[in-house]
Amino acid sequence: MLRMGDRPGRPGYDRKKLLLYAIICGCRRQIERMLKDLPTLFNTIEDFLWFKLSALREYTNASSSNLMNEGLVPYTLDDLQSYLNKFEPSYYTKNGKDPLVYPYILFLSIQLLPAILYLSKEVGEDGYHVDAVHISIALADHSVLPDGIGSGQKIGVMDACAEAASIIRQYGSIYLRNGNIDLALEYYAQAAAAMGGGEASWIGEGHADKQRQRSLMLKQLLMEILLRDGGIQLLLGPSGMGEEGELKKYMMDWRSRQQFLLEAAHRCQEAGLYDKAVEIHKRVGAFAMALQTINKCLSDAVCAMARSMLDGESRAAALIHSGNEILETARYSSEASIQEKDLISEQQTVLRQLEAILHIYRLARAGQTVDALRETIRLPFLHLDPKAPNVTVDIFRNLSPHVQACVPDLLKVALNCIDNVRDTDGTLRAVKSKIANLVASNMSRNWPQDLYQKVAQCI
Question: Which residues lie closer than 8 Å to 375 by C-beta, 6 or more apart?
Fold first, then answer.
């Protein structure tokens, strides 16, 4: 029916009619036969691919069975993808001379994820990886990635979302490393949305598992930004728990924000970012926890000062000032519970004990050994009063670990002061004896060896 006179004595085909018939019937056998008989039918890959796309048929099981009975095997998207994937990318790109042809082929054959993965791995001045990022955002936002995984790809639905999210996240991390946290936040939010399946995840219409994965990734990425310089200001604003910052966009419930910030503060403490931990605890009203961090840092600074480190005293003074500010804020806070107030009171006691130790070190440094020794004896938790009876007391039972850390250096300072003061009435001998008993009863604590040597010399 389709034959026509091409040349005298040689049969031919009406190619337009032949193509139309193949497209209408969508029969795999007819299409393959036509391409075999007429290998030069198409001049470009693009023409060939559009023909293939036009001939695609997707049937239900029932209609497909009827066609099979009639001898018509439909040409499906899987058939097209399998055929295209037989060739290496270099076949389409002419060994890199035309790099966009291969991803173009993948996009047209609805192999969306392989296409963006290919673009994301391209390097060079053309910046195709940037295209991959924004195409990933568009595809993920419209929730087409899960349904657009190519034939033969061993990737699950969530894996496709995770791949797109990873591409977007990596791009956002470039801005984060360069200090542009505003843009990093935008891309990080898009990455979390991609992980959750797109726009539907933001409005609560997505699958529960996708919602969970989006939430987990979003918290992780927001944490990265919060811990960067300027992150607290960006996410939380000038005050509060994010009501005036960007965090409210992503966590509208204040309890969610509070829990997130408490986790962030804990992460800061683990990373040694104590100033950020204190600031975050203050924002959520966890004043006792903020004071505890202040006391930990103050203890380190006091110990540094005892070891003649130059930054110890200035650091300690700044920490005491911060601690006093927290106490003042907590005093007028209406949100602090009775339990929180008790915890604040405990930390205030620790702060004052550390402040007293710092004062002793300052006196000793200034050469005021008598005053330094007098203040040391007055410390109630050491029990060094020479007039008090000698009793065995576990001074560490109720003593904060932050104060405990300062005791060995404090005892050495006291012994050095005794060496420089004349004992006229035996008082200093009694103090030495109490220090020796204190050290002897705490041998299991493995205090510095020079303290033991100093005690041995004084006995």
Answer: 356, 359, 360, 363
